[in-house]
Write a structure and sequence with these properties.
- There is one protein chain.
- The protein contains six helices and five strands.
- The chain has about 130 residues and is of the alpha/beta class.
- The protein has one domain: Oxidized Rhodanese, domain 1, CATH 3.40.250.10.
- The protein is globular and about 50 Å long.
- The chain starts with 8 loop residues before the first helix and ends in a 9-residue tail after the last helix.
């Protein structure tokens, strides 16, 4: 018997986008090197190796986000314990929308995500650094 999915990803992303800040790509490009922001790349290592990343972005695979944010987790990363704005991105802004909402719900603030994700970043000629 087939499963009946009642909550769809597109709906979840749309709902998240009503509750979080979305930064236009052109504005996000100006954040590179800004010490008041932490840009967080949620893509997996294969995606990073294939296409590079935003210069200076912190790589946090989507599956580890909750564990790395939570200071009570044995996997906590100190980068998520700073008085800075956290700006998430993924390939097309779906994972980043859900992640920004999740991080915000966990108490991380302020948070936002980049409109259109890395795909829009590349189309806008945003800087990219190679990942080995």
């Amino acid at each position: 018997m087939a499963q009946t999915i009642t909550k769809h990803v597109k709906d979840m992303v749309a709902q998240a986008n009503t509750q979080i800040e979305t930064i236009p790509t052109a504005d996000a490009i100006n954040l590179v090197g800004n010490e008041d922001h932490v840009i967080v790349d949620l893509r997996d290592p294969r995606e990073l190796k294939r296409g590079g990343k935003i210069p200076g972005a912190f790589s946090c695979p989507r599956g580890m986000l909750e564990f790395w944010i939570d200071p009570a987790s044995p996997y906590h990363k100190d980068i998520f314990n700073q008085d800075k704005k956290y700006v998430f991105y993924c390939a097309s802004a779906w994972r980043s929308a859900l992640s920004a909402q999740l991080a915000q719900d966990m108490g991380l603030k302020p948070v936002a995500h980049i409109e259109g994700g890395f795909g829009a970043w590349v189309k806008a000629d945003g800087p990219v650094e190679a990942v080995d």
